[in-house]
Predict the structure.
Amino acid sequence: MKKIVWLIPVLFFSTTRAQDEQLLKNVKHHISALANDSMEGRETGTKGEKMAYSYIVSQFESISLKKMGTNGYLQEFPFTKSVKAGNGNALRINGTDFKLGDDFFPLAYASKGTAGGELARVGYGICAPSLGYNDYASLNNLEGKVFLIQLGAPDGAGPHSKYADVGDMRTRIDSAIAKGAVAVIFINDDKDIDDPKQEYKNRITPSAIPVVFVKGAAKSMLSEGGRWRVDVTTELVHEEGTGHNVIGYIDNNADYTVVIGAHYDHLGYGDDGSLYRGEKAIHNGADDNASGMAALIEIARTVSAGKDKLNNYLFIAFSGEEKGLLGSNYFVKNPTVPLERMNYMINMDMLGRLKPEDPVLIITGAGTSAAWKITFGYIKTDSLKTKTTDSGIGPSDHTSFYLKDIPVLHFFSGTHSDYHKPSDDEALINYPGEIKIIHFIEELIHRMDDKGKLDFIKTKDESNDDAPRFKVTLGVVPDYAFEGKGMRIDGITEGKPASAAGLKQGDIVVQLGDINVVDMMSYMKALGQFKKGDTTKVKVMRGKDEVIKDITF
């Protein structure tokens, strides 16, 4: 439940005017450097990311933080950087070869391989007896053929089509495979429907057969009717990338370690995740999250020079946050400090746009330890208002730590119209506002130093479910870094269907109701079939064991 907390002005971490002027100068320098066009948006796995982490390393060195990565300050982690059509793609119809890109291209569902056979025209390829429609009802001898499937639906395409739930490409491909198809060709003869794009951004698990879309000369030939022999080869090449967390440490020989983190990556040129619809442009991410990164560096400087020695302090600059919390997800599964020795985690994401007319600092995770709200009451806010929520789950890196039963706090200065757009530039940063936030966090860290090991409380994550746009929720946090078959569960929300059914962290959902779950897209499709009160079965892989549970939404 969200509520406003007005903090009691008792004591504030004291600084001189000269110290604040130097702090402001430093923060401005960090944000200006990280949000400079030369870093090309700091996308994970790019030259810009390297420039950014090199800058952060230099700052950690200047503060004399101990190297705590796996390669100096750096901790490398793998990820799929891109997927593209390989050189091995080929399409031949009755002995005529066609050109990749001009006449055909593989779809993201394509397996790597070659298949050939007689062409079978199967209409829309929709099998929906419950709706009184089945394109396969009058077709025989389909085994071993290449299926030609029309895009669209009998009542037109779109979200209001009654066939929308059974007419997506994955379902049509699965139906074709069940009917004996060795390959699938999609074609579009409906002028009201856009052709699919040749792009492979989503984490889509391939099917078992080649799948292509035809256009140009290939489309013209197949549109003539008649009998055709088709041979098709598809190859999607996954380019593996490497991201880099930057990790520095203050070792006070204490029993427990405090983690303070912020992500430094952004969207590059905005190809994935941008809300901008203009021409290609650098997304500098001054607020998201050069502002949080600047705060991390300066808080590290303060803690390093201070007298708080009853905890160790681990400072982590995460990469891959914009691609699905990849860096923090990797770190908690490959920690360089034992998780059981971690006291709590503070995360800072977008601290640079505090609204002068209504300076509200948003703090989430306030319910993950009983100590948080008590301590807030002893911090003078210096004109800040705070808005707290209890949940430990949210769209930033603190979630990865909360899922490991570590108390967390996430600091955020609010949304704005420049979010995930090229206009999120340094000139728009509210520097006095960010300085106030930094002082608040520094005072909090100071006050927590002698509190010992914090208790951990699992929160009710009412507004942070896996699929809030659906009528129902399973009550899990998906592992967005997982690229195998199915949807791996990274966290379970207490009191929700998954918890009641006995699902566990690490389970891989492979079927929900009648729908096979092969990736996030098919999981979301399966979830959309249900309404509150429905009961069905969920099949998960738990290690090597197949487990089936009844689940009620």
